[in-house]
Design a protein that fits this description.
Oligomer: single chain
Strand content: under 5%
Radius of gyration: 25 Å
Strand order of the largest sheet: 1-2
Mean pLDDT: 77
């Protein structure tokens, strides 16, 4: 029930990408130019990705509070915009409109933050599956709300805003209580949980293909058939609630054989350079003391000792106990995380990768005619839908595959793979050959989705589950920073300068409008890949210990 409700709630978070569906109504009501409209869109994305306040509030008051707060933000933002368009056209100051866009964007981001925090807490042993499915469903929200608009509201764009406000309110009031009363560690067998996640994965893949086909042939679909399509979407959303076949109830903590606590204490020999793990089974007070020992100290003992590089078999029986119990060899607070070099390496990789991808997504409808050399209005919808599907499938694929291979391949290497795919996509785009545009779009879509498919899980694994909502909020800021750098400070000025010299201005049918931008992305991508590899090598000890712990627990349960 928890996962099904959270997936449905994520449709609100996904409305952040629906700006294009209703923004023409705002543009018409206030006679806005394109630059001002882009400013409103940027405000919504800044609100969506700058979430440190929401992360702290969620960490303090709980995930249910965070979800409710996000729904309230989204509802108020959308409702204010609807009232501004319908009842007070050209009367509301532009600053208030910018604030409303930032507010609904902040609501979308707050919901995403709270949902990911809850999902990784409830599905600790299936983090990759949960992250992949939720982020993939989130990626499909664009196509979902676009289809709802086509079926119910076209061409009344202002009423669509009212629908978004009402849906945010109703979904919050109905789904958040369900999540609150059913949340907890999953208590079903591994085989059953894995089977359900695979069914959910198959369903999301089918829906992605379905939405892609709808966008390809949407001009040939009558309004009556759009309503039929809407009915199939409702049926698909209702099918999510077939997953909790076991019935209503709060999940409980699974039983696991965890031996007594232990201390990590360096025992110096004659040379003074070795470390061992010693049990603390002398008394209950000693056990309590060891359990409360510093997380930073744990990391120091592991990382700087020979223990981290010892053969798996020789350390598994001693070290896996703590890794299984805490699910993180290194667990630091949110503020401590900001002092780690690993975090800043991770941030730079995400800033470059997500910045390049968001630049491509934001300008896809202009990149297409620039590469083709002529107008491409009829192909833009299919192109954008294709990129959206690649993005969604990558979130699903990276999350699922990284979970399947978690005992063999560290998840950090999937970050490297996503960075390489993004760089290759930028390189193909830089070549300026229209025949390479679709392969480039596929690589950029998969790379961008791949980053989101592993980013939340990696934050939890590299820095621990403590204060996860704040940690995740800090990492999400990478998208806002990257978008500002590559879109606002690179792509925008380059396009404006080149397009003004063209006869078709404000449009541009020459690849020169984007060539310099893609060159910047290609150049920036190389050190980003190098830093991703550095992070993977630098943090390999974390994944080695986690893998050893998981293997030992499995052997104990089998025995």
């Amino acid at each position: 029930w928890t996962l099904s409700s959270m997936l449905t709630l994520m449709l609100i978070a996904g409305t952040i990408y629906g700006f294009g569906a209703w923004s023409p109504a705002l543009k018409e009501a206030y006679d806005l130019d394109q630059e001002t409209l882009e400013m409103l869109a940027s405000a919504s994305h800044i609100g969506n990705y700058v979430l440190m306040d929401s992360g702290l509030l969620t960490a303090r008051f709980g995930t249910s509070f965070g979800m409710a707060l996000g729904c309230a933000y989204a509802c108020c933002g959308y409702l204010f915009l609807y009232i501004s368009i319908v009842f007070y056209p050209q009367q509301i100051p532009i600053g208030f409109l910018i604030g409303a866009c930032a507010l609904y964007g902040h609501g979308c981001g707050t919901i995403d933050n709270a949902v990911m925090t809850e999902s990784l807490a409830d599905f600790k042993e299936y983090k990759g599956y949960a992250n992949g499915c939720i982020k993939a469903y989130y990626g499909l929200a664009t196509a979902t709300i676009a289809t709802i608009y086509q079926a119910l509201f076209r061409p009344n764009k202002s009423m669509f805003l009212l629908f978004l406000a009402v849906y945010s309110f109703v979904a919050g009031c109905t789904l958040i209580p369900v999540i609150y009363y059913t949340r907890g560690l999953v208590d079903e067998s591994e085989r059953k949980v894995t089977k359900k996640f695979r069914l959910l994965t198959a369903g999301i893949i089918l829906f992605a293909i379905y939405f892609f086909m709808l966008q390809l042939f949407k001009e040939d679909i009558s309004q009556t058939w759009w309503q039929v399509v809407f009915s199939t979407i409702l049926a698909g959303m209702a099918a999510l609630f077939m997953l909790p076949m076991g019935g209503w109830g709060t999940a409980v903590r699974p039983k696991a054989k965890i031996p007594p606590p232990f201390d990590l204490q360096p025992d110096s020999d004659d040379s003074g350079d070795s470390s061992t793990v010693s049990s603390s089974s002398s008394s209950s007070s000693s056990s309590s003391s060891s359990s409360s020992s510093s997380s930073v100290g744990h990391e120091r003992d592991y990382e700087n000792s020979d223990l981290a590089d010892s053969p798996e078999g020789s350390i598994a029986s001693r070290v896996s106990l703590m890794a299984v119990e805490t699910f993180a060899p290194r667990d630091v607070s949110g503020m401590q995380m900001l002092c780690y070099l690993d975090f800043w390496i991770f941030m730079v990789v995400c800033i470059v990768g997500q910045g390049c991808a968001l630049m491509f997504l934001a300008n896809a409808s202009q990149i297409l005619p620039a590469m083709a050399g002529h107008e491409m209005d009829q192909s833009q919808t299919a192109f954008l839908a294709g990129v959206s599907v690649f993005n969604s499938l990558a979130r699903l694929g990276f999350g699922t595959i990284s979970e399947l291979l978690k005992t063999k391949v560290a998840r950090s290497w999937f970050l490297v793979l996503a960075s390489v795919m993004l760089w290759m996509g930028c390189l193909l785009s830089f070549l300026g050959d229209f025949r390479l545009l679709w392969p480039a779009a596929a690589l950029l879509g998969f790379g961008y989705g791949g980053l989101w498919g592993v980013q939340p899980t990696m934050i939890s694994e590299l820095f621990g589950p403590s204060d996860f909502s704040f940690k995740y909020a800090c990492s999400a800021a990478a998208a806002a920073i990257g978008s500002s750098i590559f879109n606002d400070f690179v792509a925008g000025p380059v396009y404006q300068e080149q397009a003004e010299a063209r006869p078709e201005y404000p449009k541009c049918f020459d690849f020169a409008c984007f060539k310099s931008t893609f060159l910047v992305c290609v150049v920036a991508g190389l050190p980003a890949i190098a830093m991703a590899v550095t992070l993977a090598v630098k943090t390999r000890w974390i994944y080695r210990l986690t893998s050893s712990a998981t293997s030992t627990l499995t052997e104990d349960e089998d025995n």
